[in-house]
Write a structure and sequence with these properties.
By secondary structure, the protein is mainly beta. The longest helix has 11 residues. Strands 2-1-7-8-9-6-3 form a 7-stranded antiparallel beta sheet. It has a domain of about 100 residues. The two termini are about 20 Å apart. It contains 1 helix and 9 strands, in the order ββββββαβββ.
């Protein structure tokens, strides 16, 4: 069998020394994309007039997430307050195979989902990564 199911991914955050809190009823966790910016080091001595580059600072794109709003769960309310307060958090994305990615950042935005006659109440948002991302493999 090739591949592994993604079902079971979890996303949590910590503010300061508070206990870890999970984003409950998560339905989607976006990719954590890392890229190197480029620095142009081309000069008049570059071979055959070709441009030359070296890797610069690493950047990380926003990470999207979505979830269901469930009676008795305050996940949306907590995220809304953190967006309003512009609070920096420590995040941990846990995957079905036990691997994890950890990083610091903040909730860049959160949106109450579209309300349709045959749909569920939900929310979606994005995390902005600030600094390094650490990957840890499962045991």
């Amino acid at each position: 069998m090739a591949g592994r199911r993604a079902m079971g991914a979890k996303l949590s955050y910590t503010v300061g020394t508070d206990p870890k809190k999970y984003i409950a009823h998560l339905t989607s966790l976006g990719a954590i994309n890392t890229a190197n910016e480029e620095i142009d080091v081309t000069d008049h001595d570059s071979p055959n007039g070709n441009q030359e580059f070296i890797a610069g600072a690493q950047t990380h794109e926003n990470v999207s997430f979505a979830g269901n709003i469930v009676p008795g769960d305050d996940t949306f309310k907590r995220i809304w307050a953190l967006v309003q307060a512009r609070t920096t958090c420590s995040f941990e994305a846990e995957y079905a195979d036990g691997s994890k990615m950890t990083f610091s950042g903040y909730f860049a935005n959160v949106t109450m989902g579209e309300q349709t006659t045959d749909g569920l109440m939900g929310y979606e948002g994005e995390l902005r990564i600030s600094g390094d991302v650490t990957f840890g493999e499962s045991a």
